[in-house]
Amino acid sequence: MSKAVDDFRLKLGGEEYVPIFVGGMGVDISTAELALEAARLGGIGHISDAMVPTVSDRRFQTNYVQEKQKKYKFNIGSIDKSVVQFDLERLAEAQRLFVGRTMDAKKGDGVIFINCMEKLTMNSSRDTLQARLLAAMDAGIDGITLSAGLHLGSIELMKEHPRFRDVLVGVIVSSARALRPFLKRAAKFKRLPDYITVEGPLAGGHLGFGVDDWQEYDLKTIVQDVLNFLSENELDIPVIPAGGVFTGTDAVEFLESGASAVQVATRFTVTNECGLPEKTKHHYLEAVEEDIIVNTISPTGYPMRMLSQSPGIADGIRPNCEAFGYILDNSGHCQYVDAYNRELEKNEGKISVLDKTCLCTQFRKFRIWTCGHNVYRLKDTTHKLENGKYQLLRAEEVFRDYQFSKDHTIKLPDLKTSVSSEVSLAAA
User: Fold this and answer.
1) What is the CATH number of domain 5-276+383-404?
2) pTM for this predicted structure
């Protein structure tokens, strides 16, 4: 008799959960509302702290971005961005506000984690990452998922916090090889991760694989390599596969092979609770497999999967590091800034930058449409309406389908009955 995801439970931090993680998609694509639904239903929801001052301004009418832009307005015309620094206390304040409001609204038996990217270098990589990590713990976050980088120094950044051994901590890796140095560093502080998310080559957004060789890798093989590595070293740490888990049966296959839960995201991009604009959600639903590309336009240095129709591709907007500057390295450099200035010198009139994109502005405006490889299958998860549009879903419908479906089936929503169940954090 076939099993469903609901026949399994994730044991984490002395508690049991429905073994479903909803991934942390930034900037505010995995909204607090989406994370709250996952937690209400007994699973694990993620928010993302990517560009958290911007997210706070949008949600709570703060003015962190305007303050920073005003402070560094004198530098807008300069190629040298090294002077542009984040106010660490204001950054921490934005993080505490976003996380705190989210945690105050939490209901149900699940938990809420925050996704923290190491590649948000922010012109002071160590200090800005530490400010975000500590502020999230201050505000009561249940767990922290360390992503987009090796995070060899991240455990040390948290060691003095009173919740260092209380908050759940996980790391995203794409191979057992990438996991080894992280565990070696973590062992020095006697603080191994509480879970390990293994992200495969079909995931959305930034990838831990080469732009030309990602097709050579397989999530099931990578997960088994990680499981074998942990077993050989007598380490009992839950492993969470991510990237291409499209049905409940996909999830069950991993759970039966030794994984403790799965992380999913793509199917939640077309829910009411997702932060993408409705028009963009319909682009996802209308996508075909040929629309999906992996390119190197991200200034982080990582390949990135997205829809080829993304309006931010080849755009030539002026970089606004004075207001944002999340990708500036410790010397105040960003590959997009370099590419923009190169094109500015070569051209008059409208500029197009083919090889890089300004992630700060483009993600803020939802103009880079990152997606998992299976985005083209989203049209099979809902109804096409008489007006030619697709019916958006509720997060609960997608979560329950993962939880209870069998035999690779997907239960379609009741026709035209999906309504938003968003919780307003601004009023919380």
Assistant:
1) 3.20.20.70
2) 0.95
